[in-house]
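Example 3.2
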Amino acid sequence: MNRIYSPTIFLLFLLLSCKKETPPAPKPLEIQIVKVLQQDVNLESEFTGETFGQSDIQINPRVDGVIESLNFKEGSLVHKGQLLYTIDPLPFQTKVSEAEGQLAESQARLAKTKSDYEMMEPLAKMNAISQRELIGARSAYNASVAGIKAASANLKNSKIELSYSKIVAPISGLIGISKVRVGDYVRPGAISVLNTISDLGDVRVRFTMSEQEYLRIFKELAKKDSNLKGAGKSVSILLSDGSLYPQKGQISFADRQIDPSTGAVTFEAAFANPDQLIRPGQYVKVQVVTDVRKNVLIIPQRSVIEMQGISQVYVLGKNNKVEMKAVQIGPAFKDSYIVLDGLTANDKVALGGTSLLKSGSVITPQIKEWTPGQAVN
């Protein structure tokens, strides 16, 4: 019997040893899941703006002459009344001396004509001299009085011109690079700019808005229950490096007209500048709240999948199974989207990042907290 069945048993053992082991079932994908948020959203529009000082005062010469000295450090803070430039004062001092001499002559002439008139007046009453001589003496005296006024005015004007040879700061602020050097000849005029001083305690930012956007906002603000009221008091700016300027500003005014060449209206916003980080001439991105949505649903942009113009998201269902749902997406808000239709406040959606996720997949959810504009924790 052993000899009959031994080969059979050996073959059975060989077949069992060659049978492949069944591979273990794959582990469910670990997918980050976030909750759909429901909150009020302030939608911001972004405009390009240019910065100005609170006051940007150009320094122009008021008399002509040669620059004799520069009395400040370029790029430094200067104070109101501080001496900045000196124009060679010698020509103006000469004019003052000449005017003083003319005034002295006029005063001497006045003394003589006054004496002659006072002496002739009683003689005329006694008919010792003619009325014609008296009138001539009175005229000479009146002319001397007028000459005193003219000489005094000329002296005053000469002294003013002499004072203009010393150019002082009209305001306190930051002064720029001088456009002239010692020895340069300058003359009065709007095009003759020596320097510019900027008061940087506050800064102004000018930006333009299209006529259509302006009309939409104006009509919204005209409503009694408008959610936009007060939005102009919280304006933000992004600097050229992408960082958010820490100070909030508010709109100061809008221009009186719409520019017919561009179809845009100019606005100006004021910002505090305690650290003087903002300098005139910077280009910044101005963010203004132009729409307010109450109690809307929002989801991260990362969770939205675009396919042939249709927006879809994976929604976590029962038993950790995800199903793809089509949603209607509204405006963007920071790094999220407003959802107009397709989701509820109780839904949870999957963040993107893997092509292995399919509708109907069972996953291991990793519930994450999130806030619009911040990375998912």
